[in-house]
Design goal:
The complex is a heterodimer of chains A (453) and B (439). Chain A has 17 helices and 19 strands. Chain A is of the alpha/beta class. Chain A folds into 3 domains: 97 residues, Alpha-helical ferredoxin (Fumarate Reductase Iron-sulfur Protein, Chain B, domain 2, Orthogonal Bundle); 137 residues, 3-Layer(bba) Sandwich (FAD/NAD(P)-binding domain); 140 residues, 3-Layer(bba) Sandwich (FAD/NAD(P)-binding domain), CATH 3.50.50.60. In chain A, the strands form 6 sheets. Chain A has a 5-stranded parallel β-sheet with strand order 4-3-2-5-19, sandwiched between helices. Chain A has a 5-stranded parallel β-sheet with strand order 7-15-9-10-11. Chain A has a 3-stranded antiparallel β-sheet with strand order 12-13-14, with no helix packed on it. Chain B has an 8-stranded parallel barrel with strand order 3-4-7-8-9-10-15-16, surrounded by 7 helices. A 4-stranded antiparallel β-sheet of chain B has the order 5-6-14-11, with no helix packed on it. In chain B, strands 1-2 form a two-stranded antiparallel sheet. In chain B, helix 3 packs across helix 5, helix 5 packs parallel to helix 6 and helix 8 crosses helix 10. The two termini of chain B are 37 Å apart. The chains are: A alpha/beta (453), B alpha/beta (439). Bound molecules: flavin-adenine dinucleotide, flavin mononucleotide and iron/sulfur cluster (3 copies). Flavin-adenine dinucleotide binds next to helix 10, strand 3, helix 14, helix 15 and helix 17 of chain A.
Amino acid sequence: MSTGQFAKGLAGGRLSPEQYAENFSDLHQPFTEHEARVEADRCYFCYDAPCMTACPTSIDIPLFIRQISTDNPLGSAKTIFDQNILGGMCARVCPTETLCEEVCVREVAEGKPVQIGRLQRYATDTAMSRGVQFYERAPSTGKRVAVVGGGPAGLACAHRLAMHGHAVTVFEAREKPGGLNEYGIAAYKSTHDFAQGEVDYVTAIGGIAIETGKVLGRDIALSELAADYDAVFLGMGLGGVNALGALGEDGAANAVDFIAELRQSSDLSALEVGRRVVVIGGGMTAVDAAVQAKLLGAEEVTICYRRGQGHMNASRFEQDLAAAKGVTIRHWLAPRAVRVEGGSVTGIELEYTRLEGTTLVGTGETLVLDADQVFKAIGQSFVAAGLNGSGEMIATESGRIRVDERGRTSMRGVWAGGDCVSGGEDLTVEAVAAGRDAAESIHRTLSGGGIDG
Amino acid sequence: MADLSNRFAGIKSPNPFWLASAPPTDKAYNVERAFKAGWGGVVWKTLGEEGPPVVNVNGPRYGAIWGADRRLLGLNNIELITDRALQTNLREIKQIKRDWPDRAVVVSIMVPCEEESWKAILPLVEETGADGIELNFGCPHGMSERGMGSAVGQVPEYVEMVARWCKQYSRMPVITKLTPNITDIRKPARAAFAGGSDAVSLINTINSITAVNIDTFSPEPSIDGKGSHGGYCGPAVKPIAMSMVSEIARDAEMRGKPISGIGGVTTWRDAVEFMALGAGNVQVCTAAMTYGFRIVEEMISGLSAYMDEKGFASLDDIIGRAVPNVTDWQYLNLNYVTKARINQDLCISCGRCHIACEDTSHQAITSSVDGKRMFMVKDDECVGCNLCVNVCPVEDCITMEPLAAGALDERTGQRVPDRYANWTTHPNNPMARVNEPAE
Ligand SMILES: Cc1cc2nc3c(=O)[nH]c(=O)nc-3n(C[C@H](O)[C@H](O)[C@H](O)COP(=O)(O)OP(=O)(O)OC[C@H]3O[C@@H](n4cnc5c(N)ncnc54)[C@H](O)[C@@H]3O)c2cc1C
Ligand SMILES: Cc1cc2nc3c(=O)[nH]c(=O)nc-3n(C[C@H](O)[C@H](O)[C@H](O)COP(=O)(O)O)c2cc1C
Ligand code: SF4
Ligand code: SF4
Ligand code: SF4
């Protein structure tokens, strides 16, 4: 038995190799063929299906499930990819409990929705593991499109543009493409390097060049792109991390950096994690950071959220997941000061809060939690700096890029979508929908349709 | 507790559940286990002539269709009659009957369609002390190619002739087992009774190919790349079997004659349905082959609970009870007007009723009301066909409600008449017989 869990302070190697492997295996085991067919048989093939309406990419869910039940998993995968080329990742990461499965008529009827996400994974895994490609590039149009950001929005956009015969160059700041699929999604949702496998699958259509390590605003300028390419799509996500506004903030690490490091680690035992960990926040990132800290062997992990349970952005399913993994969630606590001694975090002071009308106020009562590690996960923000020069020209709203219903920014020839755009929910599937739809708008414009130009 | 004891064509058994002639009844070992489990009787696996026994294929002999959860819905086989020596079977039958005197032991026989063959085997069977014989005129594969089984059952004259020989050369009650692979089941049934048969049993299995392997293009079950049509049985054949049973039960010539109901009986409810349609008892094969002999416990307890609830003292209170209600289409009441009603509290809004009615029936169910997703029946379009009820995944969510006499049928604009009227007197019927009293 490994006792590393009780090692003081920050430490790696808290668990045995088997425990690491077990903890970071698939959250939901993939369906076997028989399980998939039995589950598919539960679907009623609804008319004007509510699940399909709830899917941000409008996948024809009843059809793809029926194709599974009739032993046609490849046809099923094509039905999915037709609407969502990142259907494989979405099957793993979509909070289905607040999307398609929430409105499945069997959820309404009996509290047990058809497991749409797992079925989607079954179909897409089948096609991807066999390397089956469904799309070919249309004859070259001679048009060139620059896509900034290789996350879900950028990839979906690039794929759809390539299908239409345009030549796409993706400029990606980081070392690897994939965006948060590669650097953000919890490890147990995307196992076996699925994110890179998916990038390869998507770009196999051809006509998509990815240039990594290229930062807009540092290596390239928007004005150049706008001049050199027939169209530009911005899918840059959210680069900044919101500040705690608490004393000693420097002692607190960014949850997203912790997760990114974990996702890139080839040896989890080399990752240091505290014995006592506190995560500040109430969304998906907070839950992911907390759960993964726990899975790395932290003894005690506490999420502190400044409002009540019902206000949390993390879904009930995710809150329950955290609880099931041994994470404690505490509400009505706002951070006041991170305590640091001799360069090491020793704890965090928090103040109780309550609502006065609609404003959140401190009650004056405080509390100190011992901690060796404090993460902040109170949201990310769009960094407009990359748009240098053009910053004034591209209109923003609520701190993010403003687009119209076709994904056009205020700058002619420049489209945007995904997390970097205002409005919406910051979900992988929404980014895919935005990228795809922007590509269609770009295509209409480049083919001289004019209406989107 | 209700009395489940059964007397069928003079043969007594403690309950009406018999095992049909098939693998479950092929050996003393199986039959012994069946009787321990509680089965009321068995029809021993069909015996053939003295001499070298038939041989079965050595590859797979069953094909099947399943629901998605792999529940067996229909089974098909290409097995022949017993492949064990006649003397072995006879010895075991005798022993079993001696050990289980209160259970019915009936012996199924199939020998060539010659008087000598029947004359030879009947005394041997009679000597075992068996309660009766069943003539297998049903087997649709293998034996039929040799002029036996369904090859005989499809020719009423042969059926009558063989039944007569059996009555002539033995004192045992004779049950003639009918093949469903025929257009009008009443013909061989009448022939069986004309030949002196005490009862008929039906159905034997239905000619079938359950599947084709679409990689090798061999029918299943595949024997070295080839397949042969086999006999279909199990839950899927029950509706066909029940219809055939009822045809005989309500035939004027055969009314009241004993019928042993076979085909897809899986639960006590199936048995009650068969008996209500005129069967004096039931025989079971596939259900036992799927779940083992213990299912009879459920059958006995279910039947007895049902009878207690209904206040039925004996099986006679059930047998034939539905027969008077089976009629010809022409006598159905055309003044019985129903409308589908959707219980909005139960409805889960799947929309299946809408699309079924919209695409394939009468455009009588909405998909939205005042811009909201909602499924409601339009009485002015609903013909009362019941399709929506059958496709709705929620039990009792849609019901068919009859309109009271005098109520307005919004579809026709007519009031519902206060009297029964059928096609025979309908004005649209060119052959309408005015004033003909309906059956
Ligand atoms: C920890 C965490 C967990 C999450 N879990 C889930 C989940 O389980 N399910 C779910 O649906 N959603 C989840 N999300 C949200 C989801 O990951 C995002 O909504 C989605 O990735 C947005 O896609 P995007 O393409 O808009 O942005 P991103 O995925 O952020 O991709 C943007 C890309 O642009 C690149 N880039 C940025 N600036 C520049 C620049 N100046 N020049 C060039 N390239 C640049 C980035 O490196 C990145 O690769 C999670 C988010 C986080 C942070
Ligand atoms: C494998 C198998 C072998 C059978 N062999 C015989 C047989 O030898 N003699 C016979 O009269 N019926 C035979 N039958 C038919 C059954 O007795 C019965 O009529 C038929 O299976 C329908 O009943 P069920 O739906 O309960 O199975 C056989 C059926 C099966 C499945
Ligand atoms: S709502 Fe549920 S049952 Fe209906 S089509 Fe969608 S997955 Fe199937
Ligand atoms: S009963 Fe028939 S016609 Fe009436 S609503 Fe149902 S499907 Fe339509
Ligand atoms: S089929 Fe049944 S559950 Fe579905 S919409 Fe119609 S009435 Fe409602």
